[in-house]
Structure formats: structure tokens, C-alpha cells
Amino acid sequence: MSNPFWSPELAQLEPYVPGEQPRGRLIKLNTNENPYPPSPRALEALADKQLAEALRRYPDPESTELCTAIARQYGLDSGQVFVGNGSDEVLAHSFYSFFRRPEPLLFPDITYSFYPVYCQLYSIDYRMPPLRDDFSLAVENYAGPAAGVILPNPNAPTGRYLPLEEIERLLRLQPQRVVAIDEAYIDFGGESAVRLIGDHPNLLVIRTLSKSHALAGLRLGYALGQRHLIEGLERTKNSFNSYPIDSVAQRVALAAVQDSAWLADSSARVIATRERVVAALTGLEFEVVPSKANFILARPRGIGAEDLYRELRRRDILVRYFNKPRISEYLRISIGTDGEMDALLAACAEIIGSRNG
Ligand SMILES: *Cc1c(COP(=O)(O)O)cnc(C)c1O
């Protein structure tokens, strides 16, 4: 693809393709959104009349109150928090700020498919050490000259969780480089690496309100790390967009992050549903990759993954199919409400039963 008006490199870009956002009343299990409404405190903040009035002004460029509230949740200070327009933006600024070096950036062969896109955008070379056959991560593959390391924990789209001792080993393998841990799904049963920040100047933890806080539409993500890393991100942000977090997002996110009771409750419900679905799919002879996320990666037996994807779609159930090496026989299924998951399980039983019958 090319166009005489485009900068020459633009034609070479292969942009990220997000999961479909269909209209209509599908059971939507394809983009790992939270099936429950956000904290009532967030909704209250949204309805506040003063918020509408504040739209006349530019927002606080530093999101001071929000950064302070986030810092307090983790026992950090506000200078150790950087907020962005979704964690995708925080990731983009991290790639630009830390990974533009002569050596390759390291991330797993099966992971968030936005990483190679940022590499292309910022001309970053990368290498993808393969996960083991069971999709677990072998930390020793991350030694040697590198621009840095990035990985989601739990990983996406596998759902597999890497224990903190392993993250510490990784941090020690690359003491001179940033190791970024993308914790988009950490609230669904994993332990955050945040408590390693004090001892590791190279650790950057990236999180989002999109999944566990049920605020994907608000676009709020953040990074936590020692002050010198946060300063790096601020330099990039202030060379790009002074006001990435609008007034609405600042206020609603503030209320959301302060409601830790809601978070604990809502995550526990998602986890309980996940465990039930794992057991039921295993009963239907799926091979299910162990997950600590709000989705599971599962391989059906007796039917190809792509066929099952299509059959589910015909029944108005949308899951994610990746036509990619190593995972093309799996489906990634987001955890919805109990009712939605019952519909999914019934449909799978019916489709597989009719094939075997
Ligand atoms: C969903 C997701 C993100 C993006 O989250 P936003 O904050 O909505 O931009 C980042 N990393 C991973 C691994 C994700 O799955």
C-alpha cells in the first residue's frame, strides 16, 4: 500500500488490529472487557454537574490528584506514577523512551501483538524467545545484549502467570535495561511486581483500568517505577501531547481507583466464573491453558478452532481466533457473566455433540 502524500515509512507500517466491536446483541467474549458495570463511585463522579462545567478549561496536564491517589494505593509517591490515555499509550511512550537502542528488544513469541507494531513505528529491532510447549516462559532466554524486555504478566493471549521470583530473576539478568511488566490482567489472581520497585531501578510496571476496573471506554492506563523512569516517560509525553487525560477521565478514574472494595469483589466474581468455565470446558475435552487472567486460551478436540469460532459466531457468540503460528488451534475466550458463559458452554456442547453424533 502506498500513497504519494504519505511519508515513505508509513506505507510499510502494519497497524495493530483490535478485536471486533460489533453492533447488536452478540455475546461478546472477544476483547477481555469486564462483564460487570464499573464502580458506582465512578458512575457518580461521571454524573457530577461540576464535571460538565470543567470541560471549558484544559485539564490538569499532570493529572496530579489521580497520580497521588494511584500512588497511595501502592504505597508509592506520586512522582513514581505516570498516567496515559490507555495503557497502550503508556506502552508506546515506554517503547520510545527506553527501547530505542542498537540491541534488540526481547519479548515472547506469543504475546500482545501490539508490541511488534510499536517496534515498527519506532524502528526498534526485536527478538522473540519462544515460550515452552506449554506456553510457560523460560527466563534464561532473556539474558545477553538487549534493548530491554517487555512481557505481559499474566501473558496474553495465553493467560499464563509468571511468579514474582521469576520476574526478579529477569530483573537481575538485565540490570542495565528496563524490564517492563504489562500487568493488564494482574488483578485476576496474580501478585503484582509493584513491591519490587524499591529494589529494582530497571523495573517498570504498566497497568490499566480497562480490564479489572471495567473502564475500557475511559482510556486510562499508568506506569509505576522509580522516579528516573517516570521522568523519562514525562519527557516523551510532553513532546507529544500535554493533555492526554481529559477532565472526565481524570475525575472518573480517581473515583474508580479509590474503590478497592469494588475491585476485590468484582475480580473475585470473574475468577469464580473462570474456574467454573475451565472445569466445564475440560469436561468437554478442551485442553485449557492455566489462566490467571479474565480470559482463557483453550483448544477444542474433535473440531478445528476456526470452525468452532465460526459455529459460535453463527449462534451470536463472539470469541477471538488468532490465525497465528502455535495458537491457530486455540480460541481465546473472555470471561463474561455466568449467564453468558452458560450460553457459551451450551453452544460448545451442542456443536461438538453434533459432530460426534
Ligand atoms: C488490553 C491490553 C492492553 C491495553 O489496555 P488499554 O489500557 O485499554 O490500552 C495492554 N496490554 C495488554 C497485554 C492487554 O491485553
TrEMBL record:
Q: Does the keyword Amino-acid biosynthesis apply?
A: yes
Q: What is its EC number?
A: 2.6.1.9
Pfam families linked:
Aminotran_1_2
Keywords (A to Z) from UniProt: Amino-acid biosynthesis, Aminotransferase, Histidine biosynthesis, Pyridoxal phosphate, Transferase
**What processes does the entry annotate via GO biological process terms?**
L-histidine biosynthetic process
A Gene Ontology molecular-function term? pyridoxal phosphate binding
| Positions bearing N6-(pyridoxal phosphate)lysine | 211
Domain of life from the UniProt record: Bacteria
Names of the cofactor(s): pyridoxal 5'-phosphate
Q: Which reaction does it catalyse?
A: L-histidinol phosphate + 2-oxoglutarate = 3-(imidazol-4-yl)-2-oxopropyl phosphate + L-glutamate
Which NCBIfam families does this chain map to? hisC
Q: How does it assemble?
A: Homodimer.
Name used for this protein in its record: Histidinol-phosphate aminotransferase
Q: Which organism is it from?
A: Microbulbifer rhizosphaerae
